[in-house]
Structure formats: structure tokens, C-alpha cells
TrEMBL record:
This is SCO family protein. The lineage of its organism: Bacteria, Pseudomonadati, Bacteroidota, Flavobacteriia, Flavobacteriales. Pfam families: SCO1-SenC. Residues 42-207 form the Thioredoxin domain. Keywords: Copper.
């Protein structure tokens, strides 16, 4: 009888383990097509719109820079004393984690472009060991930056509520974008556990055909 019980438990254990492995292998990320970040499982209908900004080296950065790349986007400003240092630190950890992976890139947009010119971004990039081959810090026209934050990445939660276009953008979100330009995840970039979840989701995206 004891042997019978042990056999049943063994079958249940390995069956459960196999089921969990199959579930993980089959795991896919949803698409996010609106500012309320409702997950949708069919092909996305919203792509990051066309953009053109200037990075810390004075180079033009567009969608083509990120063509066929998985990338993480965020919004910051160089003089921010609050959440931005945490965002930069965690983006730096992603840069380190994927330093040898050409398929993964990073993109940080200044929300204070009237202060963050190319020289300021360059100094900030050097202070934070930013690799320009992996991570672009961009500035440009304020309206263009704010529009892509609000309507492209849905990064401004306050705007979704107030619709006040004069409001300053300040968000802790990291946005995960796939190789086709679809939003596939949103994470709190100041929380280590959420950044860990982001890294796991990047690995899932890398397996997509």
C-alpha cells in the first residue's frame, strides 16, 4: 500500500512539474493598445508612432534606430532629484544585463528638453556610464516629446485623467516595446522586483517568431 501511494505521488509531482513547464514555454505577452493598459491577446492595433529626436552625441534617433529591436523606453530629466536616479540606475542594470545582446536596446526621453540639450545629456550619460550603442538619451521638440509620451507610449497616467496638456510629465514607467513596435508591457522602473519581471518578459519576447 505504501509503495502504491509513493507511485501515485511521484506521478502527480512529475505531472504537475511537466504541466508548469509546458505553461511557461507557452507563455506569451499581451498587447497594450490604449492608455488604460487593458491587455489584449490578439495582434496589436497600436504601434509607437514615427519619431525623430536627438541623442547625447548629437545624432538623429528615429524608429529606424530601433527597427527589429526589442527595447525599453522611459521618461526622465537630468536635474530630477526624485525618481529619475532610480530609473537611471535600473536602466543601467538592464544595459549591463544585455550588453552582449544586440537585439535589446534602451531609450530614455527627456521631459524637460528646454533644459536637457545635447551637452547636458552628454554629461549625464558620462556620469551614468551610458553606452550609446545600447542606450540613447534623447531631447528635441517639447510638443513632439510630450505627444509621444502621452499618445505613443501612454506613459502619462495623470494626463489620461485630467487631459491637461500643460501638465508636466513625471512617470516611473518602463515600457517594453517589441520588434514590430507594439507595446507588450509596462513596469514600475523604481522597483527592483518589477524590473526583474521586465527581464523575464524580455526573454519571452526573444522567443517570439
Amino acid at each position: 500500500m505504501k509503495h502504491y501511494i509513493l507511485i501515485v505521488l511521484a506521478i502527480a509531482f512529475f505531472g504537475c512539474k511537466e504541466s508548469k513547464e509546458e505553461t511557461f514555454k507557452a507563455e506569451v505577452l499581451p498587447y497594450f493598445n490604449s492608455a488604460d493598459f487593458t491587455p489584449e491577446w490578439k495582434k496589436g492595433s497600436h504601434k509607437i508612432p514615427q519619431f525623430s529626436f536627438t541623442n547625447q552625441n548629437g545624432e538623429n534617433i528615429t524608429n529606424n534606430t530601433y527597427k527589429d529591436k526589442i527595447y525599453v523606453a522611459d521618461f526622465f530629466f537630468t536635474t530630477c532629484p526624485g525618481i529619475c536616479p532610480k530609473l537611471t540606475k535600473n536602466m543601467g542594470s538592464l544595459q549591463e544585463a544585455y550588453k552582449n545582446d544586440d537585439d535589446i536596446m534602451l531609450l530614455s526621453h527627456s521631459v524637460m528638453p528646454w533644459v536637457d540639450n545635447v551637452e547636458k545629456l552628454k554629461a549625464y550619460s558620462l556620469e551614468n556610464s551610458v553606452n550609446p550603442e545600447k542606450w540613447n538619451l534623447v531631447t528635441g521638440d517639447k510638443d513632439a516629446l510630450y505627444n509621444i509620451a502621452r499618445y505613443g507610449y501612454f506613459a502619462d497616467e495623470d494626463f489620461a485623467k485630467t487631459k491637461d496638456e500643460d501638465e508636466f510629465i513625471h512617470t516611473e514607467n518602463f515600457i517594453l516595446v517589441d520588434k514590430q513596435g507594439y507595446i507588450r508591457g509596462v513596469y514600475n522602473g523604481t522597483i527592483a522586483l518589477d524590473v526583474k519581471r521586465l527581464r523575464r518578459h524580455i526573454e519571452i519576447l526573444k522567443e517570439e517568431v
